[in-house]
Amino acid sequence: MQFYSTIRAALKPTILASLCAVSLGTHAGIFDDDEARKAILDLRQQIASLNATINNNINTTQQRNAEELAQLRKSLFELQNQIDRQKSDISQLRGDNEVLARNLAEMQIRQKDLLQASEQKLQAAEQRSQAVEQKLTKLEPVKVILDAREFMADPTEKRDFDAAFALFRTGDFVKSQKALFDFIQRYPSSGYAPSALYWLGNAQYSNRDYKEAIINFRSMISKNPDHMRAPEAMLSVANCQLEMKDAKSAKKTLEDLMKAYPKSEAAFAGVERLRALK
Q1: Exposure string (b/e) for 208-235, b if CB count within 10 Å is 16 or more?
Q2: 48 within a domain of the structure (yes/no)
Q3: Residue 27 CA, distance from chain mean position
Q4: 208: helix, strand or coil
Q5: Residue 216 region, left (φ>0) first, then alpha (ψ -120 to 50), else beta?
């Protein structure tokens, strides 16, 4: 439309000039009829030529517009295809990202499970190691000092003697007698054996089992004559004999006590007992 307006604007002066010329000729009498017809014909030819030019320009413009429109449609179609491909690529990327995220989450879960399993196995191994170490520790001999004697004893051996002697100290002589007897049977070569025999004899004395008490006191003395409690054990034999109304045997035992252990406290106590028997 702008092109048509431009053409009309360009032709307008020419047409007006021609019309003016015809008008002037009519009114002024300058041109005759032939000249007027010629001018009209020329004007018509110019108009026809102008119309042909206009139509040609219109056709050219329409064709160019159609080509541009076709090219524009083609470009829009290609752009739409690119957009569709990009959408498809974006969708694919989103799908890939979702798959990767899911795989990552599953991997993290598996790693967490593996880590927990490893930690549990490590804890179990540490617990087993500690248990083994505790067992080994329990089995390792310990140093014991009892009645001025030093010796090595198994932890269970020490535990059993301590339990039996604890019963004696509480005054439960019946249970302590059984516990000390069982200990001697289980550990006949133990470093606790001399003391166990001595306290077993005392438990039996307290239970008025004098004969058995004498047997265990004498067993302790014969096996360990240099033991610090040997003099006391011999004095205890004499006491058992006195309880059994066997003064003669008691007197003999006290005399043997003073000969074997003259400087012991038990020997001094034996002297007083002998004086009482005379």
Answers
A1: ebbebbbbbbbbbbeebeebebbbbbbb
A2: yes
A3: 119
A4: coil
A5: alpha
Buried b (16+ CB within 10 A) or exposed e, 132-152: eeeeeeeeeeeebebeeeeee
Q: In terms of residue numbers, what domain contains 8?
A: 2-92
237 alpha carbon, distance to own chain's centre = 67
Q: List pLDDT tens digits, range 187-229.
A: 999 999 999 999 999 999 999 999 999 999 999 999 999 999 9
Which domain CATH number covers 178?
1.25.40.10
Q: H-helix or E-strand containing 22?
A: helix 2-28
**Read out DSSP for 60-106?**
HHHHHHHHHHHHHHHHHHHHHHHHHHHHHHHHHHHHHHHHHHHHHHH
Task: Mark residue 148 as left, alpha or beta (left: phi above 0; alpha: psi -120 to 50; beta: remaining).
Answer: left
CA distance 185 to 183: 5
Tell me 30's DSSP state.
-
Q: What is the pLDDT of residues 113-149, one digit of tens each?
A: 877 887 888 688 777 756 655 564 567 999 999 999 9
What pTM did the predictor assign? 0.54
CA distance 171 to 203: 9
Does residue 224 sit within a domain?
yes
Structure tokens of 208? 């008025």
Rounded to an integer, what distance in angstroms lies between the CA atom of residue 196 and that of residue 183? 8
Among the listed residues 75, 134, 50, 231, the one whose alpha carbon sits nearest the alpha carbon of residue 126: 134
